[in-house]
């Protein structure tokens, strides 16, 4: 049994939030540079150049890479050999978020859903926990902007719709979104489980590196085919049309009921921000 004080979690979340607010993931930057080199539409190529330039300025000047510094999403894998001590886990996470958003001068965007009164510190964070083997804690911090979040969809498909139905759902979601989520987008897809499970899987899929493939060959084929069809939509960077509408598609899956096929599609804009830490 390993004792971990939640103060360490607070510090890890604080540092991860500051880093994520300023830096795009390396695979996101690489994917945009690749898209720029291959783009045949002049307007889309110009837009990609500006997005890449923006990301470089953010790092150089230590400024938020996007004005929407997002709602804090924290995914935690906690080893079952870990004993937590100190303040409540959720309090530690929220204190880390609160202090990072204050010190980083990040926009505070969290509000009451009915009154719309701002909480003024970007808390509470959205916290997902999973119990895993071992004596370590893995923390993934992802700020999620809502220009793209609002474009996400959930489908309760019939089992007979199968792989083609899943791909159609993914492509339809991106087509309906058009230029609104600031493409080129990154698409997270959750397949199976229940209504709520597949939504979590879609969010979790967005924490994968762009360009990675699911180890399940059938799921990997869905990723490849969906990406091809999305890029055939010709929406292009920032809606200027062109060759790259999505930088990648990542799918996660879980067993489901014999009577259902839940599919969730979570859209991320070109501003892919995700930091992983292990304690």
Commentary on this structure:
This protein is of the alpha/beta class. The protein has 8 helices and 10 strands. The protein has helices at residues 6-22, 26-38, 42-61, 89-103, 146-149, 162-177, 195-205, 217-231; strands spanning 2-5, 71-79, 82-85, 126-132, 137-144, 153-157, 185-193, 246-256, 261-268, 275-278. The longest helix is centred in the N-terminal third of the chain and has 20 residues, at 42-61. The chain starts with a strand and ends with a strand.
User: Which series of helices and strands comes N to C?
Assistant: EHHHEEHEEHEHEHHEEE
Share of β-strand residues: 15-25%
Count the E strands: 10
Indicate the percent of residues in helices: 25-40%
> What is the makeup of the main sheet?
4 strands, mixed
| Tally of alpha and pi helices | 8
Q: Structural class given helices, strands, pairing?
A: alpha/beta
Tell me the distance between the termini: 14 Å
Q: What would the average pLDDT be, to the nearest integer? A: 98
Strand order of the largest sheet: 4-2-5-10
Low-confidence stretches: none
Morphology call? globular
The Rg value, from CA coordinates, equals 19 Å
